[in-house]
Amino acid sequence: MAGEEPSPETLRITVQSNPPQSQLDELGIKSWPKWGCSPGKYNLKFDAKETCYLLRGKVKVYTKNPEGQVVEFGAGDLVVIPKGISCTWDVSIAVDKHYKFDSSSSSS
User: Fold this and answer.
1) What are the φ and ψ backbone dihedral angles of 4, each rounded to 5 degrees?
2) Looking at the chain, which runs of residues are DSSP E strands?
3) Residue 93 backbone phi and psi in degrees, to 5
4) Which pLDDT tens digit goes with each residue over 33-79?
5) Using CA atoms, how far apart are residues 86 and 44, in angstroms rounded to an integer?
């Protein structure tokens, strides 16, 4: 139904360490926009699902969902951040990443 709140299970950040190059090529990561930030703490809210691949950096993310997930990721990790999540990024090493937002939040 429209307007349903996502269940807590869907608001979990997933990290795949060192995905195979074939998977990166299939996703077309090199054609995605790039974004970077310096070390610090950033409060973020994701209004769309984001998939990103870290070229460099190290991040610890604290989610603001009820179970308070803490996730660490860094260079070489493929990360999926669900739509609707609010979190704090604690960046210890400057981040450089490719990213893509999923604009199709509903199934086709």
Assistant:
1) -70, 140
2) 14-17, 34-37, 40-45, 49-63, 70-74, 77-81, 86-102
3) -130, 130
4) 999 999 999 999 999 999 999 999 999 999 997 778 899 999 999 99
5) 6
Tell me how many degrees the CA angle 21-11-98 measures, rounded to the nearest 5. Answer: 30
Q: Which among 4, 14, 34 is positioned nearest to 77, based on CA atoms? A: 14
Q: Are 53 and 73 in contact (CB under 8 A)?
A: no
First and final C-alpha spacing in the chain: 14
pTM score, two decimals? 0.85
Contact 85, 11 (CB under 8 A): yes
DSSP secondary structure code for residue 76 in this structure: T
